[in-house]
Amino acid sequence: MTAKHTDPPMNGDDFEQMVIEALTLSLLRLTCWKEGKGDLSYYRAWKGYDFDTLNALQEQGFVAFERRNKSLELTDDGFFFGDVFAARFGMALSEALNDKLHPGHEDAPSPSGFSVVDGGLEDGSAAPTPSGAHSPFDVADGTPSAAFAPFVPAHDMPGAASGAPMPYGIPLADRPTFDPTEGRRDNDTRAFRLRIDLDLEGLHPCWREIEIPATCTFLDLHIAIQRIFNWYDEHLFCMRATARGQKLWIDEASFAGSMFDPFAPPECVVVEASRIQLGDVFPKTRTAQYLYDFGDGWEHKIKVVKTIAKSSLAAPRLVDGEGDAPPEDVGGPGGFGHFLEAVSDRKHPEHEDMLAWAESQMAHPFDLAEKQQELIKSLKGDRALWAQNLAEGRSE
Questions:
Q1: Boundary of a domain, candidates 121, 138, 155
Q2: How many domains does the chain have?
Q3: pLDDT (tens digit, 9 = 90+) per residue, 185-196?
Q4: What DSSP string runs through 31-43?
Q5: 3-state SS, one letter per residue, for 134-163
Q6: Are the C-beta atoms of 288 and 310 separated by less than 8 Å?
Q7: Does 220 fall in a domain?
Q8: 0.85 exceeded by pTM
Q9: How far is 12 from 247, CA to CA, in rounded Å?
């Protein structure tokens, strides 16, 4: 960050400072809060970091502050790149811990980090987007230290816009290929009964069962999962599965035409969720993972419990379930545990505040009949909204 656009090659001190600034920006993003509403909203964070580093971030346009204030404002670029770096640092940490705890284990951990400006703000206004500024990881020759390459946000890699060869990262065109339509059935009348378990790390069981046509896409499945678990589609998602011996990373992170997917492990084929049907994967593959909110890290385990050979079902329907789902943005299983402790104890110092916050997050106990009706009524509108977002993304 400090070293960008300088003539001499980066030395060790420059690299250290770049790491410090990137980590600081990540922490500012992870601890920020929103003020204002709609188009007038913005994000602030406390200034409790080294002032030389904060001054460098301000000079580069990532934060704005005055000396007398205890907090600072994250600019759109600061919010965006802080988001990206938090995600990349988190993923690297998860992978390192996974390798340490489970050497030789093939299953990658759930991504950690934040949402990479993924779903807008809770009041419906647009999330910050970068102004076109260079990434804080830019350096004089466009090539960061090899040891730091895994943290570079893929969409901001030097040469990405021009199509020049990349010194690191994996362009989508260079990944393994997978044609979802290969062997796809004509007039497929199958449906699947799927059990979806949300991993709350032992807090309490939380699962749903749905029946869904084989011709529905994985994006349709995403939309259904969002409703039945009371999520609000404010963060990135992905699904992981194996089909025809290939590992699939199914998401919509690249629908806007990016050359890269910044989260998919290198061995995975990246497939757009709206272009692959459930019948392209199930029932030969009987399990999959659905990951939502790369910051909170919610992992849902999907299992095919029944294949219905001939079904007249036209849309997903909820058939069973148990357990209250967490509020959006509660902070992962750990934060949810703290939330449950506070709301269940009237004497807890945060009891009233937590109840008020849960209401603002539209969190409520699971009611099977209520969710069944909500899924039926909302599906058409949710699909239309996603269709609009995809069309707008692909036209950019």
A1: 138
A2: 2
A3: 999 999 999 999
A4: T-EEES-GGG-EE
A5: CCCCCCCCCCCCHHHHHHCCHHHCCCCCCC
A6: no
A7: yes
A8: no
A9: 38
